[in-house]
Queue: 3 jobs
Job 1
Amino acid sequence: MKYVLFYTVNGLGLGHLTRCLAIARQLKKQDSSLVPLFFTASEGSHLLYQEGFAYYKVPSKTIARDSKLFKRDLAISYSEILTSIVNTYRPVALVVDTFPLGSMNDLLSVLGLPLKWKKFFIHREQMNMDRNKIETQSFYDYIIAPHSQGITKIPIPANKKDSLFWSNEILIREKSELQSREEIRKNLGVAADENLLLVNLGGGGDTTTTENYKQIFDLILNSSSLLRQKKIRLLVPKPPLNSTNELKEIFLKLPASTISFSHFPLIELMPALDFAISATGYNTFNELLSCRIPTIFIPKARGYDDQYGRAKRAFDAKAALFLEENQIKTHLMKELQLLFDKKKKMSQSMSIFLQADGADRAAQFLCKNINA
């Protein structure tokens, strides 16, 4: 049995976890002798069980802070548990997403171990990459950029230029795995003449999500004539990382026709959509574009994830519209009308905007280099 250890942190959404899950699924298909094993602090760890993967779950920094655990003790426990896992399973490969040293420098306990394993770093485009963070990628044998080549810049150490692999965009489901538009809409109870509008602001781990939802719903529901004219029906997934009472109350006030429940991965429902208003996290952004759903993207402020740059690229390619959070009140309804009018043109632009075979290509790259 050859284990591949995936390391995923807890973020403000499910991006780190979902990318690694997507690669792990393809890895199982391509080489049954490789067994994915996860170490995670994600509060979405139950999704690993849902997808059939074994995992070790540690407290996230969020729950540790709320529970008043000492940060130093948490970091030590991460390192000790990681070291124990590596010494027990002797993995043939380590796959780490976004943070080369781990969320608390805890990977330092295993990166230097004298093991016969291959180390892969998934380098999603990031803001605020200082020289130290760039150089720490030298701990890895290979660097995977989960983007189409040339769409963004990936700073890496000078000695790693030959180790960089552009996988294309990574999605957790292939097109062939998705049901047809008609099947999904039938299961959801959506009539053929209704326009299904997704409103989704990400995992829900950030502080502005509740206020953004309130602004969007107030504007849309106060424009009843537009809703009737376009026969709009809302699909509002419940955020997996936000269960505040205030947000629950907002959702309870939505029209009875609203479709609202938790579902992962959301891409399984996207072929049924006609339009979307969405945050701009890596996964949802690429999923909506790959399914050619005309979207108004609302980039959320992040420390590392450049959601604004991602939304701007799609806008410049005429593949989407976008609003900043402080523009929702003043511009949303005008942009929504524009979205309705430009549906056909946007769908055409989306078809050439990205290449969504990244999970398969990344898994092939892992298999080739693990077995080399």
Job 2
Amino acid sequence: MTVSRGKRPQQGMQRTIEVFDCPATVGFSNSFSVRTGGGPVEALHQVGVELCPQPGTDEVLALRGPGVAGVQFHPESVSAAPVPSCSSP
């Protein structure tokens, strides 16, 4: 995976996205993005790491797997309201 400057800074931007098939309204405050381009995506999948891409792009919004998790947004910005159809792995 690679890190690259985004098309535009997302300082204080709030967006509703799908995080592992669960809708979430989250806050972003970053100028760079993690991208799958040319990275070891298949190797990550083989060890159980899931990637959550931004639809239509190679931008990675989140990842999770055994002993690892990460997000490209502020975790504290996620609404505390549970979504009944969504669950953790």
Job 3
Amino acid sequence: MDQDMVVLARVRLLSANRRVVRGAEGLWIYRLLTQVEPEVYGSKLAYVLVEASASPLVGESPERRLALLDEAVEVAKALSTGNPYRSKVLARALAARQRELEGRPTESLAVRGAGASGGSSGGAAATRMTV
């Protein structure tokens, strides 16, 4: 982990002067800091990922939305059961993912259901640079 990037992310987080940094900057900050301190920043990452899935930037791309939501679910599941925010962010991510799946054509659900158990790191990695 590049410590300069960690320091930069923390400086941006502190300079934002908000409880949750949203948008592409928030995604970058929380993805980076979750690697360093997952229990501290994981719930905020899951929250921002769900918000990003509803962004106009990914509005025309169901694959991107679902990749963001899959990442949110995985991040929330990775939080320890003792984390006070785990159940709330996991429920929010699962509900958003379910709404997204229900809005898709039937054949897409079957394909997505088969791939959902294998993880989402590939799709999520592709969205990191585009959102």
